[in-house]
Amino acid sequence: MKQVGRVWMIVGMMTWIGFAGGVSAQETKTIQGEVVDPALYLRDGRHGKEVEDLIYDAVDGGQALALLEDGTSTLYLLLAGEPGSDPNELVYEYAGRHVKATGTVYERGGVKGLVVTGVAPLEGQAVGMPQEVEP
Q1: Of 25, 37, 69, 77, which is least surrounded by CB within 10 A?
Q2: Domain definitions of the chain by residue range
Q3: Which residues contact 56 (CB under 8 A, 6 or more apart)?
Q4: Do the beta carbons of residue 88 and residue 66 sit within 8 Å?
Q5: What are 88-122's pLDDT values in tens digits?
Q6: Please, are residues 121 and 98 in contact by the beta-carbon 8 Å criterion?
Q7: Which top CATH class is 24-132?
Q8: SS3 of 115, please?
């Protein structure tokens, strides 16, 4: 009987671990942060307007951008809302700049992603008008 109890305890723990590692949380959120090249940031720690040309080179080569949250340094990978759409569309002109981005946040296995639905530059970061995805 003790063996059966242990087996069920192990099965329960394995199930919980499987669900905890694979959970995809979804919530709409507005995040203030800097538009960065995630490869350049993760590999070299580089970001900001001084690497703007490198960010555009990376994006033009196919790199999806990311949002580095102010205050927490949480990195949100930008995700396409639909297969084949461009995840960089709304933030492209803000490379290396600080913005407020609104969208749906997803998390799986500790990695966070953001499908951007609206973006606006912060004070002193103006480059055009705020943009939103048409419904």
Answers
A1: 25
A2: 24-132
A3: 95
A4: no
A5: 999 999 999 999 999 999 999 999 999 999 999 99
A6: yes
A7: mainly beta
A8: strand
